[in-house]
Amino acid sequence: MALLLPLIVICIVSGVTADANADAPMTRTHVASLPGFDGALPSRLETGYVTVDEVNGGELFYYFIESEGDPGSDPVLLWLTGGDRCSVLSALFFEIGPVKLVIEPYNGGLPRLRYHPYSWIKVANILFVDSPMGAGFSFSRDPNGYDVSEWFDGHPEYLANPFYVGGDSIAGRFVPFITEKISEDIEAAVRPTLNLKGYLVGNPVTGEIIDNKSKVPYFHGVGIISDQLYKMILEHCKGEDYDKPKNLICRQAMARFNENTEF
Asked: Which of 36, 126, 176, 209 might form a disulfide with 113, Cβ 3.0–4.6 angstroms?
């Protein structure tokens, strides 16, 4: 999946014009308002499907939101949510999007939305994508098609903008590979050439071994566990599985660690 996502990016910036028919590589709709939000949206919102796998009927759904600053020159950020297979709406409504859900008891009506003054849309154009297949509104007519293959179509005006790839949670596993593949394509002079500047991951899942081994120095580094407990774990837990320590002193130290880090 990670190696195929850059093909989707190339599709969007290649300038292919989309028609709203079944054979089109891309269908898109301009959304002027949202139920539950008073007034016009703070910036242009476009949603659509990209046909990413014609053989299996794979369709990838996206939300593209223009920057509130200068869309023509502000960076373009491709954002992928982890999960696994969580809808990217979670990032749009709860994390970095321009509107947020109003948290209140359900009264039988539509959920209310409010403006998010600290959205990343203030400084960047963001392309939120439901990926991989089966996440959010992305789907495949054939179960064999639940792999990402292509994406991005019809926005050549953003080709020169600084481009970033970002995501959180399980996206931490594939965002670096996507970025690496795009970088390799740039070096190989694959057209169109993206103005790749970097990538970012939030609270990323990178792998059980790495994540498990890094939790002790992380919690010490942010001041949640004491120097004394940190040194105790380093001294008595060498080579131990933090989740199932065999050493008695290590087991006691990790019990204290777990008590201090449960939220």
From this structure: 36
